Amino acid sequence: MSNVINHSLLTDFDIHLFRQGAHYRIYEKLGSHLIEVEGQAGTYFAVWAPSAKAVSVIGNFNGWNKAAHPLSPRWDSSGIWEGFIPGVGKGTLYKYNVVAQDGRHLPKGDPFALFWEVPPNTAAIVWDLNYEWQDADWMQARRSKAGQEQPYSVYEVHLGTWRKKAGATESLNYRELADELVAYVQDMGFTHVEFMPVMEHPYFPSWGYQITGYYAPTSRFGTPQDYMYLVDKLHQAGIGVILDWVPSHFPSDAHGLADFDGTHLYEHADPRKGFHPDWKSYIFNYDRVEVRSFLISNALFWMGVYHADGLRVDAVASMLYLDYSREAGEWIPNIYGGNENLEAISFLKEFNSAVYKEYPDAITIAEESTAWSGVSRPVYTGGLGFGQKWMMGWMHDTLNYFKNDPVYRKYHHNQITFSIIYAFSENFMLPLSHDEVVHGKGSLIQRMPGDEWQRFANLRLLFGYMFMHPGTKLLFMGGEFAQTSEWSIERGLEWWLTQFPYHKGMQAWVKRLNEYYKNTPTLYRKQFSPEGFEWIDLHDYQNSILIFLRKGDETDNPVVVVCNFTPVVRSEYKVGLPAGGQWREVLNSDESAFGGAGFHQNGELAAVDEAWHGRSQHVVIKLPALGMVVLEKQAAKTTKKKTTTKKATK
Fold first, then answer.
1. Interatomic CA distance for residues 503 and 497, integer angstroms
2. pLDDT beyond 60 at 644
């Protein structure tokens, strides 16, 4: 058995940065790395465990012998243990045996492991990240569009349940997803996918939100290179990749980060700050600079190594408030006596600053459910620095409005109009996420009132209203074809439903909405600005009708949106217009191709020079029951003068 060679990849400058909390590429030095030392191939190991009495590497290469391969502590008091073990190659299973000061032996997975065994096994695997990317065109295009307003229509996906095989008993692997998922998302016209956490997690029903392997895509679906292939194929198809990222908490599994060196290394020691009462998990200690390095390095790792186009940060509200989900006496006020978590606020600002400095063409998105000010405002103005924020208020109000029987909607008109009051206070994304179709809430189609026809008409109207409303869009998988059952971690989506006309029509409607949204700059150039929106009529609560205008730049055609939230057809409904001339119906949720009645199309319309809705022109339209009509101003036609030449005469 070879001995451990005293060797280091860490320079004095690395240690300086690490101890300052400013080493944002620490994954290049800690963890396991396949290298050569003195002509011998093997693996260099390095782990941060400052309170440990001893640390050794155990694995299938040494019979899991705790004494065979001890690591050495660095002389600089950094708390890092390291060493090179010749002969340990790619695919080797390993853990660290950490000896605590009280004598306990703690077999720990590598916090920086690049690959893990398939759960429930818990060993890390020595691996490399070699891969020949083919997405240069996508990455260049992404850079060229940095800072520009862009359409974001995001398809939220849980990789393990999007589609099943082998009689619905097995998940697709990364390479199978690279064929089936990529083709589907491209056909449906979504601009991005958002993956629920791909990072390694021991418990499948946690949906990925209880992470132990922050630096590894889950091995359930293949190798790191297989996952890279999936991202690569998405990029080649013109589809961006947003990853759910969870810096808010981590599980208590024995092989994970909790009690790592026999102390509360990654988490707060005081449970009033270090333990989450809802999720029974540990909260990171954001005041510890090495923990900040671990997390910010992790964010940049997924952006750089795995070409992620964005990170959606989970449970930001739980990070911002010390009293989140806690009763009086169960939390500790900050130094000013308030409930704000000052360390977490500082961390989030540093995280966003680091991401946008390194990847100004990427996006960070906050799942933040409170009225915290400036979530998506720049750090230099006092904001948290996120690019976008989930508009949870819009989601709750909209779903609550739609569940009402239409006969009562006139009494709840403020629910559907209120969002515009604060729509431009942040850069909002409108989410209809996985959280809205679980835990007894029912599927989206189940939450719509009325008979079958009305339920589908309501859902088409909901999606149409969502796509026309200011802000970017997110829809959880299955919603696009009106899955009838709640999403379950135990089974795949109900793809068989798409053979039925209503479900197939819903799918066609979402595809058409994506197409129109992406190809209509009016809808996204000013989606975060009040200049891009104007009410035409928000007061017709008796008929539960809304009319609004979307505006882009001067060169963009204005778009008028008319929503009828009742099952009553309005065959001659006047709509005031911002300009005269020719208008054309570009969307109608009642088309037969989408599962509608198909009787109330409008086609080309000429504005009438008569005032209505406080405007000098109007059109009269057919407004379908539980339907949406979208009108677009047509550019004035120019006619060329014919020039004639006289024939010469003799």
1. 6
2. no
